[in-house]
Amino acid sequence: MRIVLLGAPGSGKGTQAQRLTGIYNIPQISTGDLLRAAVSAGTELGLRAKAAMEAGELVSDDIVLGMIRERLQQPDAVKGFILDGFPRNLVQAESLDALLAELEQPLQAGLLIDVDHDILMKRLTGRLSCKDCATVYNRYFSPPRQEGVCDNCGSTNLYHRADDNEETIGNRLKVYESSTAPLIGYYQNQNKLKRVNGIGSMEDISNAIQAELDKL
Ligand code: AP5
Ligand code: MG
């Protein structure tokens, strides 16, 4: 299965991608996670990406496209992939189509997780992520069973993302509207757009996504 998860910051792309990897046994490829790993490791790529990420702007296309090209050619992506947070503008979407045509593995769907903007702020200001296994929690909606300890791997490295403050979130939402939302029309024109309501329990949303994916 080869799909893109589309949706605003906080719509649940990462949360749902983590569930889908277990079900379909294909990797989640999140450009945000790859970039944060590069920033924490202090690589040259991370240093180039850091300022844009902290401001809630998009990192340049050449950095992201290079990263994706390399990642999609790793052996675990042969069976398929769930792209999370990529593509994020029309140039990236067209480049992805060209790359997948070269690999003879065209994309099957762009799945939009639809959430009203007023809900997103609370989801993002409350988010906690595990530094060791990347499991995502929420202080208000889905806290870990024991405060400060990851349910999945027992790590005590739960952190609040640097870009999850109100000012940066406001900018991320604007960038989503101007640069990323046009991809909804792009995939609609290719007859690849699927939509699910992203408000409700995480399980109900997973079930709705699976129902769409099982039709592919
Ligand atoms: P990225 O990491 O992709 O961030 P984002 O798009 O802003 O999306 P988020 O990760 O914030 O949201 P999500 O949809 O994954 O939500 P989640 O599941 O965590 O990108 C970060 C930055 O990197 C960008 O700003 C940019 O600078 C750069 N970047 C990345 N990709 C790029 C690209 N392709 N090109 C250029 N630059 C790029 O859920 C959020 C919270 O809500 C969690 O706490 C979760 O527990 C909770 N939640 C989830 N579902 C529910 C539910 N159903 N009910 C209640 N709470 C829920
Ligand atoms: Mg995410």
Characterise the protein shown here.
The protein has 216 residues and is of the alpha/beta class. The chain has a domain at 2-116 and 193-213: P-loop containing nucleotide triphosphate hydrolases (Rossmann fold), CATH 3.40.50. Helix content is 48%, strand content 15%. The chain is built from 9 helices and 8 strands. It has helices at 13-24, 31-41, 44-55, 61-72, 90-102, 117-125, 166-180, 182-189, 202-213, and strands at residues 2-6, 28-30, 81-84, 109-114, 127-130, 136-138, 158-159, 193-197. It has a 5-stranded parallel β-sheet, sandwiched between helices. A hairpin with a 5-residue loop joins strand 5 (127-130) and strand 6. Bound molecules: BIS(adenosine)-5'-pentaphosphate and magnesium ion. The site of BIS(adenosine)-5'-pentaphosphate has 35 residues, from helix 1, helix 2, helix 3, helix 6 and strand 6.
Secondary structure elements and their pairing?
Elements: E1 2-6, H1 13-24, E2 28-30, H2 31-41, H3 44-55, H4 61-72, E3 81-84, H5 90-102, E4 109-114, H6 117-125, E5 127-130, E6 136-138, E7 158-159, H7 166-180, H8 182-189, E8 193-197, H9 202-213
Parallel strand pairs: 1-3, 1-4, 2-3, 4-8
Antiparallel strand pairs: 5-6, 5-7
The site of magnesium ion has 6 residues, from helix 1.
